Amino acid sequence: MEKVGFSVISKEVKWTPVLLNQQNHFKEVVKKLFDVLDNVKNTNSELSNKLYVLTRKIKKLQNLEEENISEEELKEIFELIEGLDGDLKNLNIDIGNLQDSLKKPAYRRKCDFDVEITRDALNMIDSYDTLLLFSGDGDYFALTEDLIKKGKKVILVFAEGHKGKEYNSIGNSLFYACSVDNLENSIKK
Predict the structure, then answer these.
(1) Using CA atoms, how far apart are residues 183 and 54, in angstroms rounded to an integer?
(2) How would you classify the pairing of strands 130-133 and 153-158?
(3) pLDDT per position in the chain (189 positions), as tens?
(4) Which of 46, 51, 122, 147 is the most buried if burial means most Cβ atoms within 10 Å?
(5) Spatial distance between the Cα atoms of 1 and 153, rounded to a whole number of angstroms
């Protein structure tokens, strides 16, 4: 980058906590997930209770000393029931852990690059004629408008489908927008 006249400035990335159940776009999903998980836990408890009742009934059969059920068969039945009961208990523990995890904050990157780029672009306005901005983020629209009003050219390079709709209203020869996919063809022109 420096060979073609650009200065590379790296910035430390900040990590900010985000509680999923407090974010508008996640609130409904997290609530539905909790509802489903609560329902699974309740169903597991009901199944566990039914297994307990079944175990008691089988013990009564054993006491009747039915000739059709061998000791080995009864042992296998009890082991299966105990295994299912253990699986259900473990599943409830896993669900509880998942719910606890969803209540804890997740950390997302927060860069503040839009503010820093805007600040740098305005502080260095006398040092350049053209701002080449590799972002379609609509947060740069006001900066783009201000720079054009001050006679600066702005070239916006964006990922396909990631150009803020605000830019569609700019009808000025000092502004050029191009998707990354078309960048090579645009340069060749």
Answers:
(1) 70
(2) parallel
(3) 677 676 776 667 777 787 776 766 677 777 788 888 888 888 878 888 888 878 777 777 666 555 566 778 778 878 888 888 888 777 777 777 777 777 777 777 677 778 888 999 999 999 999 999 999 999 999 999 999 999 999 999 999 888 999 999 998 999 999 998 888 787 776
(4) 147
(5) 20
How would you classify the pairing of strands 153-158 and 175-179?
parallel
Q: How far apart are CA 68 and CA 111, in angstroms?
A: 72
DSSP track, 91-134: HHHHHHHHHHHHHSPEEEEE--HHHHHHHHHHHTGGG-SEEEE-
**Interatomic CA distance for residues 183 and 9, integer angstroms:** 23
Pick one of 3.40.50.1010, 3.40.50.150, 1.10.287.110, 3.30.450.20 as the CATH number of 112-188.
3.40.50.1010
Q: Which two structure tokens, joined as six digits, stand for 146? A: 């201000």
Q: What is the pTM of this model?
A: 0.49
Instruction: Find, among 55, 57, 56, the residue nearest to 83 by Cα.
Output: 55
Based on C-alpha coordinates, what's the Rg of the chain? Answer: 32
SS3 state of residue 176? strand
